[in-house]
Amino acid sequence: MSALISIRELYKTYQRGNQPVPVLMGINLEIHAGDYVSLMGPSGSGKSTLLNLIAGIDKPTAGALLIDDIDIAALPESELANWRAANVGFIFQFYNLMPMLNAAKNVELPLLLTNLSSSERKKQVATALELVGLSDRAKHMPSEMSGGQQQRVAIARAVVSDPTFLLCDEPTGDLDRQTADEILEMLQLLNSKFGKTIVMVTHDPSAAKYATHTVHLNKGKFVKAEELLL
Ligand code: ADP
Ligand code: MG
């Protein structure tokens, strides 16, 4: 079976003033549909950069990034927005909810890019909130919810449009152990029961154990776990 996400000799170099900052240096990775990949590595090793490239938020400097055989680096921005809306659910460390919108309105946001009717949107929002166990918080504002509840709203927002894969950037980095475990179990359910392919950046070794694969990034290259200790 061909890979869902195929990363080949991928390079990313940022420019700081006229100083090049190489961040990803020729990485290769294949992620298959249904995989749950945990992406580990020290701070500054390029983990968020890689997620942003997979999400089509940023463009690689060189190399190929094929998703479902589409070279997303080559898509024009107008097509990329539609591609992203249909395929990518993003979950952030600090939830990134809109503070002025209640839980249901936050979850509805990605659906405003589709041509679903208002009643269809409401139905999907209700289903997503139920999935994360927050049906009774639909009208609550983010400031009225705990960190764990806000992250569950963010998960509902990420899955409401039924995307192909979920990209999570340290989704439990701001949560206590017990709440982190609840979030990790929710992500695992989305993977095992709903077949969502997941790529999750994490520093938490116990988060990585939920994954089907773990890869380690160090200074812009994939390394074996043992090499990180050297
Ligand atoms: P990680 O998520 O693993 O901590 P990042 O991918 O955020 O690492 O960053 C990797 C490196 O790239 C860091 O050295 C960071 O300073 C640099 N970097 C990230 N974004 C930019 C940018 N927009 N411009 C310049 N340098 C950047
Ligand atoms: Mg990061």
Short summary:
With 230 residues, this protein is of the alpha/beta class. The chain has helices at residues 47-54, 77-87, 103-108, 118-131, 147-159, 177-192, 205-208, 225-228, and strands spanning 5-16, 19-31, 36-40, 62-67, 70-71, 88-91, 165-169, 197-201, 213-218, 221-223. It contains 8 helices and 10 strands.
Describe this entry's structure for a reader.
By secondary structure, the protein is an alpha/beta fold. The chain has one domain: P-loop containing nucleotide triphosphate hydrolases (Rossmann fold, 3-Layer(aba) Sandwich), CATH 3.40.50.300. It is built from 8 helices and 10 strands. Strands 6-7-8-3-9-10 form a 6-stranded mixed beta sheet, sandwiched between helices. Adenosine-5'-diphosphate binds next to strand 1, strand 2 and helix 1.
Question: What structural class do the secondary elements suggest?
Answer: alpha/beta
How are the strands ordered across the major sheet?
Answer: 6-7-8-3-9-10
Give the overall form. Answer: globular
CATH-level-2 architecture: 3-Layer(aba) Sandwich
Low-confidence stretches: none
Q: How many strands, which pairing sense, and closed or not: the largest β-sheet?
A: 6 strands, mixed
SSE topology string? EEEHEEHEHHHEHEHEEH
Number of helices: 8
CATH class: Alpha Beta
